[in-house]
Amino acid sequence: MKHVLVFGGTGHMGAAIRRHMDPTKYRITRVTRNPKSSDDVHWDGCTLGPWVDVLDGSDVVINLAGRRVHCRYNEDNLKEMMSSRVVSTQVLGEAIGRCSRPPGVWLQASTATIYAHTFGDANDEATGVMGGNEPDVPKVWNTSIQIAKNWEEALERASTPTTRKVALRTAIMMGIDKDSAFDIFSRLTRMGLGGRLGSGKQYVSWVHELDMVRAMEFIIESELEGPVNISSPNPLPQAAFAKDLQKAWGMRFGLPAAPWMISIGAWILNGDSELVMKSRRVVPRRLLDAGLEFMFTEWGLAARDLAARMRS
């Protein structure tokens, strides 16, 4: 049985890992700023401490630490998003480098937001276009991309010669927890507000929480390293995404929203319009080529499954 340390494991992705990771193969320990049980290990995300003793001799590290992105993109929040990701990655790399028995694999959270806003060809790991130079997009989108780039650079710079490092470029994970992306989209849909956003042509890249965890297990047991996209093989335009979600909840309609309405709504919901207006068209080429079979490849099926899980 492999001992898995999940850093920052009290969020939605950490909850999905605890629900779905095979307990016959993996023993999970959370390392978190806010311990919730006697089995949790405390760290502050920025300095070395007693948590390093738990790291030494572990088999797998999954680092999910970082301020959640569902917030208003003001200067203070963006700075915290950057520092919480980069600094925690740097200190974890330093700790692994000091281990006498370092973990064999380090899965580091990243994001599919690193790719360019596009309506054209899908972005994979080999041919995907990095974001940051797109014309006619809000400047704050470039800040999000720079956060992702700095995050991955911190992983790459970490000196861990015997630890395989993987950057998980994740699409929007759709899970059943309260205030998760799926929960927020579902609430709006059930209120009749989940219609076309803007043109509705922007692509939504997504992954079911079960496939997210299955991909992590697959990577742990494989030899993959470097950037790996974790997303459904079939991103779809937002208008089609909204229609399928309406069907999953038995709604007959969803009011469309103009861009100015989306900006106001995002502010009211304490978020930013980038999360729904950026066209993320991402495919998991390396996972598919390595042989991973996704359970949920079509959004309609995934939406119905998640809605049923939430109902029960």
Characterization of this structure:
Helix content is 40%, strand content 15%. The chain is an alpha/beta fold and 312 residues long. Helix 1 (12-20) links the parallel strand 1 and strand 2 (26-32). It is globular, with a radius of gyration of 19 Å.
What's the topology here?
Elements: E1 2-7, H1 12-20, E2 26-32, E3 41-42, H2 51-55, E4 60-63, H3 75-98, E5 105-111, H4 139-157, E6 164-170, E7 172-174, H5 181-190, E8 203-204, E9 206-208, H6 209-221, E10 226-230, E11 236-237, H7 238-248, H8 259-268, H9 274-277, H10 285-290, H11 299-311
Parallel strand pairs: 1-2, 1-4, 2-3, 4-5, 5-6, 6-10, 7-9
Antiparallel strand pairs: 8-11
Strand composition percent? 15-25%
Q: Identify the overall geometry.
A: globular
Quickly count the helices. Answer: 11
Return the string of H and E elements: EHEEHEHEHEEHEEHEEHHHHH
The major beta sheet can be summarized as: 7 strands, parallel
End-to-end distance:
31 Å
Q: Total strand count, please?
A: 11
Q: Which residues sit in consecutive blocks of at least 5 with pLDDT less than 50?
A: none
Q: Helices and strands: which structural class?
A: alpha/beta
Task: Determine Rg (CA atoms, Å).
Answer: 19 Å
Q: Can you give the helix content as a percent range?
A: 25-40%
> Strand order within the widest sheet?
3-2-1-4-5-6-10
Give the overall average pLDDT.
Answer: 92
